[in-house]
Amino acid sequence: MSMEYPTIESIIGNTPLVRLQRMQGNSSNTILLKLEGQNPAGSVKDRPALSMIAEAEARSAISPGDTLIEATSGNTGIALAMAAAVRGYKMILIMPDNMSIERRAAMSAYGAELILVSDGMEGARDKALDMQRQGLGKVLNQFANPDNPLAHYGTTGPEIWQQTNGKITHFISSMGTTGTIMGASRYLKQKNPSVQVLGLQPEDGAQIPGIRRWSPEYLPAIFDRFAIDDVMDIGQVEAEECMRQLAREEGIFCGVSSGGAVAAALRVSKTVEDAIIVAIICDRGDRYLSTGVFLP
Asked: Per UniProt, where does pyridoxal 5'-phosphate bind (predicted)?
């Protein structure tokens, strides 16, 4: 009898949900962290990357051999490069030139072509659409593509609901494209409208990889402010200090935006009792080593 072995695609998702043990001190609350760095390409973005390619294929909008183009600050690009490699696409990724060397190297390892721009994510997004207009490839457009939040509505939200036995009271996620928070919150609020959904953005002047304060003209089309209960600002220093503390006290090695999400969870924990607070740990810390953020 032949055995069915898993493929790399089939092990995306079903990530662990672990309890914060030391950092919250004595509290009646439970803070749980969803370890998305356990995905095969190392981040929460594995979910929408596969979803956007698979759903576009199912609609016959793309087919293997096509060239795909995407603007990315890092994690989506790495995830798309992996998914494109598995499914047989050429991948062109456009990225701000201030992103870490590890991110560039990972994209190249999967065979993607990189184009670096000096005018940030806004410039990268504009260039991707310009290249599509020139017929150089097809843009998946994670910022406006409903298959991005659909991935989290279909997987991340249900996993969290099941892993907490439906007892989750608060959901916290950093916001970049906003796909994670849009999809997961839609599912969680359908199950229990009283679940509090809190989105995180960097405070003015903070440079936290993967999350943004978008100007109105670049606000992701998939974002619906009414789908979340509150937006919290997080500072650079607070996010980085919490990230380092997670590694040293909890053994959880993650990136800066994940540190921000846990800092926000700890803030919320001080204002409530008997709560089950879930925060997204969106990637792993080894993606940021060259930036020096872990040095004492």
From this structure: 75, 176-180, 257
The full length of the chain comes to 296
Structure tokens at 3: 């055995």
Q: Are 159 and 183 in contact (CB under 8 A)?
A: no
174 is catalytic: no
Q: What class does CATH assign to 45-139? A: alpha beta
Decide if 8-38+155-288 and 45-139 have a common fold.
yes
Catalytic residue among 45, 73, 174, 189: 45
> Residue range 208-235: average pLDDT?
92
pLDDT at position 236: 94
pLDDT score for 99: 79
Q: In the annotation, is 257 catalytic?
A: yes
Is the sign of the CA dihedral 50, 283, 202, 278 positive or negative? positive
**Type of residue numbered 238:** E
Q: What is the rounded distance in angstroms from the CA atom of residue 281 to the CA atom of residue 247?
A: 12
CATH number attached to the domain at 8-38+155-288: 3.40.50.1100
Q: Where are the domains of the chain?
A: 8-38+155-288, 45-139
- 179 in a labelled binding site: yes
Is 14 within any annotated ligand binding site?
no
pLDDT per residue over 264-279, tens digit each?
999 999 999 999 999 9
pTM beyond 0.70, yes or no: yes
